[in-house]
Amino acid sequence: MLFRDIIGQQAIKERLLRSVSDGRISHAQLFLGPQGSGNLALATGYAQYISCLNKQPDDSCGTCSSCVKYNKLIHPDLHFVYPVALSKDVRTSTDVMPKFREAFLDNPYITLFNWFEQLDAENKQAVIGVEESGEILRKLSLTTYEAEYKIMIIWQAEKMNQAAANKLLKILEEPPDKTLFLLVCESEDQLLRTIVSRTQLIKIPKMTDADLTNALVEQKGLSAEAAEKMAHLADGNYAEALLLINENENAAQNLASFQKLMRASLKFNPQGVFAWIDEVNAAGRERQKNFINYALHIIRESMVLNYGDPSLVKLGADEQDFVKKFSPFIHARNIERFMDELNKAYFHMERNANAKILFMDLAFKFNELLNIPKQEMVQ
């Protein structure tokens, strides 16, 4: 992955380049950034630059033997770890490396949702298990083949279970000579504090709308107007922008699901709520989290329509029609609780909450919030 192929994040790129030129490469680094920010792409580009045999001032050469292998993710001194759906046939990342290689090369901004779709495992739990830690220790005990450093990239490091994380503590603190750990994470709170304390933090912000707009124009051929709209909707998340472009059907499904939930919750129709819960429960955990994010987005846009400039609300045609009717129910007296309940739901979903119980609780709370009047009744 060349730095020039990574969207925006110029300040981060310069920091990484400087660490190499100054000879200040930390043995364990945490690339912390929100989904779609490019944290995995940046870690991979950094690894490639470190291993490049003909480094340029601002990028890898892209043509040396090391870069050629990095461009195909087949360099013998580059290792990846990522969440898998554990089964009798899949115990570690190595078991599905060809699929991961294909998925990353197709989209370096891959999300966990995309990855588990690739595995046909949307309904299973994503985990980096204790057997993976043993595999990491085995790989890093080997001598380097070609490069100066052995580099281990752990994507979605927050998915390590406690046993796996604890097993890595010693090697993170005292790694073998010329060994680098690059942990890629979206949620620092889900990592053991003992893991975080052993790494140098590289905090990656979400993309700017300008960088995202330019990328959509140059890479996806969108008009400037369409790209600007997509960038606003994606809120600095390139993966979300791709989803908006390529998966209109998924967006339509989310809108239809959100409408059903709100209508059933408003007057609390038990039959409608139970039917909706059965439907969303069958969708799989990653799709459920995707729906919660979508609900947060619609709630935010409804609030903007009520209290801001309507031109700032940039939604699809069907979404705009719905939000115009729905937005009166979202106001200053309930917006904070709406956002809080959805954020808590996402938090608990990440921690394997029972989906049926979680969504039933949301429906009850939405019934209360939707029926809060916009203003106190005048006595």
Describe this structure in words.
This protein is α/β, with parallel strands linked by helices. It has 3 domains: 3-203, Rossmann fold (3-Layer(aba) Sandwich), CATH 3.40.50.300; 208-236, no CATH class; 247-370, Zinc Finger, Delta Prime, domain 3, CATH 1.20.272. It is 54% helix and 7% strand. The chain has helices at residues 10-21, 39-51, 65-70, 97-106, 112-118, 130-140, 162-173, 193-196, 209-220, 224-234, 238-246, 248-266, 270-281, 285-307, 317-326, 335-350, 355-370, and strands at 28-32, 78-81, 150-155, 179-185, 200-203. Helix 7 links the parallel strand 3 and strand 4. Helix 16 (335-350) packs antiparallel against helix 17 (355-370). The mean pLDDT is 88.
Name its key features.
Zinc Finger, Delta Prime, domain 3; 379 residues; alpha/beta; Rossmann fold; 17 helices; five-stranded parallel beta sheet
Main β-sheet, spatial strand arrangement:
2-3-4-1-5
Kindly estimate the percentage of residues that lie in beta strands according to DSSP.
5-15%
CATH architecture term of the largest domain: 3-Layer(aba) Sandwich
Rg is 23 Å
- The end-to-end span amounts to 66 Å
Poorly predicted spans: none
Domain tally: 3
Mean pLDDT: 88
CATH superfamily of the largest domain: P-loop containing nucleotide triphosphate hydrolases
CATH class of the largest domain: Alpha Beta
CATH fold-type name of the largest domain: Rossmann fold
- The SSE order reads HEHHEHHHEHEHEHHHHHHHHH
Largest sheet: 5 strands, parallel
Strand count: 5
Query: Which structural class best describes the helix and strand composition?
Result: alpha/beta
